[in-house]
Amino acid sequence: MGEDERLREALLELQILGDREARALEETQTLLACLEAYTSATSPSAALASIFVSLENAIDASVSMVVRATPEGQLTIQASNDPELVGGELQAPIDIFSRSRNIMDLNLVGSWAGRLRCNAYSGLLVAPAADQTALLCFRKAPKGFGKESLKLVTRLSGLASQALRNSEIASENNLLAATIAGSSSGFAIADATNDDLPLIYVNAAFEQLSGYKAEDVLGQNCRFLTAEAPDAPERTRLREAVNRRAGGTFLLRNRRRTGELFWNELTLFPVYGSDGDVCHLVATQTDVSERVDAANERDQARARMERALAATDDAFLVVEPDGQISFANDAINDLLSAPGVSWTKGSRFSDNWAAYLESVPFPPFHMSGDLDEAYFSELAALQQPQEVELPNGRNILLRVAGLDDGGLVISATDITPMKSAQRLLAQRLAAIEAASDGIAITNDDGRLTYLNSAASRLLGFGRPEDGLGRRWYRQYTEATPVPSDKPFETTLLRTEESQTVTHEITGSPLENGGSVIVVRDITESLETEAREEELMQDLIRLQRQEAIAQLTAGVAHDFNNLLSAINGSAALIGMLEDLPDAVQPHLDRITSAGSQSAKLLNRLLDIGSGSEVDGAFDLSSILADLSQIMQPSLPTGITFDVIAPKSGVALRGNAGALSQVLINLCMNARDAIQTDHGEIKLSVSLVKGADVLSTTVGHLNEAGRYTSLTVSDTGAGMDAETSASMFQPYFSTKGRMGTGLGLAIVAMHTKSVGGAIKVASKPGEGTEVSIYWPMASLGTNSDGVLEAKTSDLSDMTVIVVDDDPNVGHVISKYLEAVGAEVATCEDPRDALDAIADDPESWSALITDYDMPHMNGGELSARARQIAPDLPVIVVTALARRLTDPRLTDGQVAAILSKPVDLDQLCSTLEQHRK
Q1: Is the peptide bond between 364 and the residue preceding it cis, with omega within 30 degrees of 0?
Q2: Are 518 and 506 in contact, with CB atoms under 8 Å apart?
Q3: Given this model, what pLDDT does residue 395 score?
Q4: Residue 710 falls in which region: left (phi positive, over 0), alpha (psi -120 to 50) or beta
Q5: pLDDT score, position 754
Q6: Is the pLDDT of residue 104 over 60?
Q7: Is the Cβ–Cβ distance between 57 and 36 less than 8 Å?
Q8: CATH assignment at residue 505
């Protein structure tokens, strides 16, 4: 090799060495700059932030972070130059803790997941550190990091890990300091390395507790607070603990800066340094003056209680949780005396009780089980006293109560005299309690001191004890105090559940004050007397009604004979061939008046007869000729208008009864108009029973449907008293011109069919009388066949049994109109034969109850024997008072009242369709 060649190689080596030294110098300068920024930081968090700034300036790192591994294998971002990333998670496709890495292209190592969008970065430097932490640097530049960058990151990763730990420790210290500073308990910290234990820290609560400021006490020993004598036991115990640098809790009497004394509960605990020796003593201090004062008051009260219990005749025993007796008075030794038994303080309850049980010949307690130690715990759980019969025949009332600390308080009262008196009193009370009359004893003020069960019930108290101390006369309406020093007898009223009852009360004074009162309920006897009188008056009225009805019918019958002659003569005159034309109009008027008179006579023949409740009729059949009947009886100046619905309305009952009702109302309206001019109006509407709030006569079923027929006039009107009496028999405001029966008949017909009446009238404003007549649940088709408005009973075969063919006809026609096939029978035996011939062919049996040969109960029972599954529906006027055991308790499908609601009947059949 030539000299020139060696020279070139030497120069090249020198250049390479120079470049290497330059790079080393640059790396050293960069590292020194980072260390200078790190060491000059004012806090651990600032030191950690300086590393991120250095990495950004030195190697152009876009994002730097310190991550820590979780037990689940995830990475949590502990710190970063991007604050939004801190606290987030990161999942790497590689093990970043195995070694340092310089990844030139992130896309080649797999997908990353987490808060950081790693696909936005091209290069990554990974430098693991201690405690499963690592320093990561991401770069957005088109190319990755250089080799020298990894060296720097590797050297700085340890510093970053240490800065992270320092930051966490600082946060914990700040939290602890804030907790101590803000605590409601007083904190004082003393330097335990100094023999005088000077205070180095006190919090605000200590300042408030003691009254001293921190600058006044720091550097001093806290003994300046104590108000205890130097040789006081508690202060001596605290001094020994301080000398031993040990912990403990102490109760001391301290003094505030103002001189005020207070009880201080001091808790002392040592703090050890890194060398294992106590470096500080920490004391928490709490003002417990209220607690100590309460304890002193409790001890004083206990002492007073023990003195009081020692003086009482009742026996008292207090047992501590460990079974030791802490208090026993003399009475316990008197009641439970036995050889070897000494109920004294300090002895054990179990020893004394065992000795007592051995001294008696049999268990003293007359209850299940022996009276042993465990039994007292059971008594404490019962929380009520128990009677005990002792072997010597004495009776005591034993009480056992549990204390909060697990101890027991046992007390006993000698009730032997009381038990003897109770037995005697019980015999007397038994006789009084058995009395049906109410017997009670009162004091001078009339307050009840005793009352038997009958008196409690009569006076309206739920239990006898509820009436004790109450004035008995205040249980009655408008009652006044009765002198207790004199005998008395009175009759008073009181209201019980919206019902007024009458009591007869007698009183007798007692020698020692107060009185004995005896209460008898005479409501039923008075009602019986009133009913007897009412029945007598009703009988007289019925006899008068019957006589008038017979007289009216007789007069109508005789007048009908005369009317027949008049109508016949008019017919004969009309047959004459040479009848003058001028006579024909007069003959027509005679014929028309005779026809109307015949209809009116038919109404008169109904007087005195009850209204039929079965059957159905169309309202239009009555309203059609009502105007013609009324018009001849009205003066020329009085108009009569009928306002009725255009469609037909089917009503229950008898058309003649309703016609008689309307004629009577219209006649009364005419008489109420005392002038030559006025107006009478009949309005018809459909209502529901629930929509009518009140009625004057009768009651409406809330679920029922009714036709309201309202007759109003412009007459003189009535006052409330007249309106309330207008429907009573023989009540009349017309004097000798009236009989007092017209409106009574109106009320009779309306109530018998299940309707009601409402009257609205005021003097000078006219009168409005509304008749609510029950509707029949059917209509009429074009062929005159009854049809139902609802329900579908197709495929049902029903047999109807009723000895009244009209009732059976109406029901059968209605059921056929809704699709059922119906067979009717008047004799229940025929129905029974039909069921027996083919039991499976019938869907239901509808029967009356009161029938010849066999009533509905017998028919139902025999039909069920033949066809057990056959639904039976009983339709009877006795529905509300029917007590036949063959029909009650769900043995039939339903019991419906007459007049039957045909819609309800169809609904019941649908519910029991087989």
Answers
A1: no
A2: yes
A3: 81
A4: beta
A5: 87
A6: yes
A7: no
A8: 3.30.450.20
* Co-location of 325 and 213 in the same domain: no
Mean pLDDT of the chain, nearest integer: 79
177 phi and psi, to 5 degrees?
-65, -40
Residue that terminates a domain, selected from 521, 553, 581: 521
State how far the Cα of 862 lies from the Cα of 11, in Å rounded to an integer: 139
Task: Find out whether 192 and 281 touch, Cβ atoms under 8 Å.
Answer: yes
Side chain identity, residue 208: Q
Per-residue confidence (pLDDT) for residue 52, from 0 to 100: 87
Flag whether 566 is in a domain.
no
Instruction: Say if residue 319 is in the same domain as residue 280.
Output: no
pTM of the model: 0.32
Give the pLDDT score at 339.
75
Residues 6+ apart with CB under 8 A from 675: 637
User: Are residues 757 and 836 located together in one domain of the fold?
Assistant: no
* pLDDT score for 709: 92
Give whole-number Cα distances, 708 to 119, 590, 677, 686, 770, in Å.
Answer: 89, 36, 26, 6, 6
Q: Do residues 162 and 28 share a domain?
A: yes
Print the domain residue range for 460.
435-521
Q: How many Å apart are CA 686 and CA 619, to the nearest integer?
A: 12
Q: Which amino acid is at 632?
A: P
What the block records as the tokens of 801 is: 């049994």
The pLDDT of residue 455 is: 86
In the DSSP assignment, the letter for residue 870 is -
Q: In the beta sheet, which residues pair with residue 253?
A: 263
H-helix or E-strand spanning residue 617? strand 616-618
Q: What is the pLDDT of residue 783?
A: 39
Please compute the mean of the pLDDT values over residues 748-776 and round it to a whole number: 88
Domains identified in the chain, total number: 6
Neighbours of 473 (CB within 10 A): 17
* Token pair for 208: 């408030």
SS3 of 506, please? strand
Handedness of CA 201, 207, 213, 216 (dihedral sign): negative
Contact 78, 89 (CB under 8 A): no
- Average pLDDT over every residue of 821-850: 91
Q: Is 167 a member of any domain?
A: yes
* DSSP-based three-state secondary structure for 705: strand
Asked whether 221 and 211 are in contact (CB, 8 A), the reply is no
How far is residue 791's CA from residue 379's CA, in Å, rounded to a whole number?
69
pLDDT at position 781 is: 45
Tokens of 581: 């034309």
Which of 28-42, 181-195, 196-210 shows the lowest per-residue confidence on average (mean pLDDT)?
Answer: 28-42
Phi and psi torsions of 320, nearest 5°: -75, 165
The predicted structure's pLDDT at residue 370: 44
Q: Which of 418, 453, 475 is a domain's end point?
A: 418
Q: What is the pLDDT of residues 632-690, one digit of tens each?
A: 778 888 888 888 876 557 788 776 678 878 888 888 888 888 787 889 999 999 999 88
Q: pLDDT tens for residues 361-374?
A: 655 554 334 455 55
**585 domain residue, yes or no:** no
212 and 107 co-located in one domain: no
* Pair of tokens at residue 238: 């605290």
C-alpha–C-alpha distance, residues 342 and 282, integer Å: 51
- Residues 137, 124 contacting (CB under 8 angstroms): yes
595 or 460: whose pLDDT is higher?
460
Instruction: Average the pLDDT over 819-823 and give the result.
Output: 91
pLDDT per position as a tens digit, 402-416: 777 778 888 888 888
Phi, psi of 12 (to 5 degrees): -65, -40
Question: 908 in helix, strand or coil?
Answer: helix
Distance CA 457, CA 447 (A): 17
Residue 709 sits in a domain whose CATH number is 3.30.565.10
Cis peptide before 899 (omega within 30 of 0): yes
Question: Would you report the helix, strand and coil content of the chain in percent, each value rounded to 5?
Answer: 40, 25, 35
Pick the closest to residue 869 from 904, 844, 895 (CA basis).
Answer: 844
Same domain, yes or no, for 644 and 705?
yes
The H-or-E segment that residue 835 falls in is helix 828-837
